[in-house]
Here is the input.
Amino acid sequence: MATPLYPRLEKSIFDAIRAIHIAQVEPWVSFAQGLSVKRFDGRTIGYSGIAYEGSPEQVFWSRYIEPFLEDLTLRQFTDTVKLALEREVDARAALKETHDLLLSACRKTYRRMADIDQQLRGGGFPQSVPAKDWKKHYSITQAFIDKHHQAELAMLKEPNRMERWYGRNKGLAWALGILGTAGVGGLIKLLVGS
Here is the structure.
């Protein structure tokens, strides 16, 4: 069953991926008319008047998109833990949801890149050339996401026995607190003699 954070996590991740697609992936569709995009480090990639082969193709598939996906991964895991703790939602379950949503978003990104690559290599006739195998690129990003998911889980503080009991019995703890306070007040009155 999904955590109450799932809709928010889903929207956050897919809005971020959409922004990455618009800024970094979709401009390549118009490669023949000229291309100008920014790398993650801020340097510009620009091509004009050349075919999509050799250097442009290598740039597109050689750690161009990964820094954007890695940054998204780190930000989303950090935000998930913070939000889960603030909202008292199971952080482990929320991290798993974030992990799975990130994998899905990255798969979508690499599939779209492969579609664009095939269209560009085919000169507008994508079926005339074989599709690029995007899965090796995805597997590297998947390993990054998996590694950071495991790291976030390892950093989560395990609740002690009392914290687990309190988490399951907040209402009872609250009632005992009121009764305890009233009982102490009554005992003091008895001892003081008022």
Summary: The mean pLDDT is 91. The chain has two domains: 6-157, 160-194. Residues 160-194 form one domain.
